Amino acid sequence: MSDNQQPKSRGGARLGAGRKKGSSAYGEPTKAIRVPESMVPELLSVLEQRKQQVDLQTNRVLPSSFIHPTLDPLRVSIPLFNCRVAAGFPSPADDYIEQTLDLNQLLIQKPAATFFVRAEGDSMIGAGIHSNDILVVDRSIEAVPGKVVICALNDELTVKRLARKQGQLVLMAENSDYPDIPIQDEVELVIWGVVTNVIHAL
Amino acid sequence: MTSQQRFALVDCNNFYVSCERLFRPDLLNKPIVVLSNNDGCVVARSAEVKALGVKMAVPVHQIKELIEQHDIHLFSSNYTLYADLSSRVMSLLTEFAPRQEIYSIDESFLDLTGVCDQNPLAYGERIRWTIGHHSGIPVCVGMAPTKTLAKLANYAAKRWRQTGGVVDLACPDRRERLMKRVPVKKIWGIGSRLSAKLNQLGVITAWDLACLPQEILRAQFSVVVARTVMELNGTSCLPLEEASAAKQQIICSRSFKQRLTTFDELAQALTQYASRASEKLRGQNSVAGSVTVSIRTGIFNPDEVQYNQAISLTLPSATQDTRVIIKAVKRLLRKIYKPGYRYQHAGIALGKIRQVNEGLQSDLFIMPGQVESSTQQTLMKSIDEINRRFPNKVSVSSSGIKPKWSYQPENLSKRYTTHWGELVQVTCL
Questions:
Q1: Who is most buried in A9, A150, B53, B201, counting CB within 10 A?
Q2: Which residues in B lie closer than 8 A to residue A190 (C-beta atoms)?
Q3: B273 touches B254 (CB < 8 A)
Q4: B47: domain CATH number?
Q5: ipTM over 0.90 threshold
């Protein structure tokens, strides 16, 4: 300590001396009292219990039912009651639960060969395909006359119905505003996939 | 009678190009290249581009004129799309063989032993046709008694059109005829350095290699080459590896769009790579024991002052904590960074990788069987989960926000198969 911090007069209470207030083992100020000798052990045990309820780090008194934190905050052991509590009557339907319904199961036979595409235009309205609908396309299904197919036409992916009219394969729209497109060379026609379902938002 | 072993290698044709074409019928028969992660180099070429003499890994600025002249279509790499189509191909292949080894994003070995002894070519053709039609990705099939020969068969199927994309090399005479026509450097496992050494010994074709006496092999080459020679002669030494082994090294490195000069910029980029690499590390449930950092200036400009440096350190204990790895990366960068250079490329590599559950206690203060303290693990797990749902939402602050080195792909196609908003449009006209 340097000179100018020393008190000027001697004697009396010194600043900062003694135990700090509230630093007792009980987390609050203490007071000396006289008690009958026969009660000393009993009172000491009461005080001892009280001491154990003080959190050493924060000096606060914990409620008596509090779980004491361990040094590793992630290793608190909390008793686990590992038995079922029968609450009410067991459901008579328990044995009949099978599974929830999955739309994938309904719409997709072969996931690795199935693609979703978005339709644009009104030429297939008669087949229930509206603009902006999502089509489920399965590439593993053979494109035979009658199927709605995605084909590459004029460098674009296009939806048409494959049909046979008077022995000639045609790509047909499902809207009378659009003419049929006869297929001149079956080898040249690139069928991309077969539409199996339409997903139409209402 | 037990049937002869038969492996097949199914390899997608120009895989990235085929993925891009699947949703773009207008690009059929048009020249296409797919560029690397930073739009820097060519990583995939369509047949038309190969015919123009464009080599693999060429920097795109070197073929600028060709691109304009031939109207070559450029694509940034769309790994989301490629990964989805790859998994479709792999899953379709499982129907054809009891055992499968996924060798890379576009190649898979199959064990066809006893599956198609009657007519292997017809079976191979069925594989080729089915994958091509169902997934939309064309493939070639090579079949042979060993994996090395199956690779060679696939090479032949791709190289010679009259094979129809399917080759079977069960017959030793056919093998001999083919190997006499194939240069040794095309053999699986024979790199360019090895083939140069072999050429000096007069070993030019694959057949020369297959005929190399065991004494010479043992005296001058590694056991790996000796094994390759046995495989070429029809003795299978390399079994099918079904479970994909966890990676022994994880690398994350990129070229920058713009040159970087300051320490902070480089540190930001490396921090991001370190985050990505540690995410991969946790994804395969591993810890890394060493970290390597490398930085370099441009290598294609001969007038520029060059600097190229890499440095490694061993971590005090193996970790998968992004923060620990980033700290190490920054320490290493501080050691090799020199001001005054225009850096073009930086990367990090995580090494000494082992599985978390190997149960080695790496640190006195960590419980055996546990790699990090549980708080560390919980934090990293949460970050990974958030980032999985919302990509790049949580990152270490030193990776910077919208940094100038970050790369915006310019020719990215849509994620047709994985995002509802990016489905391909089909016209009803």
A1: A150
A2: 25, 28
A3: yes
A4: 3.40.1170.60
A5: no
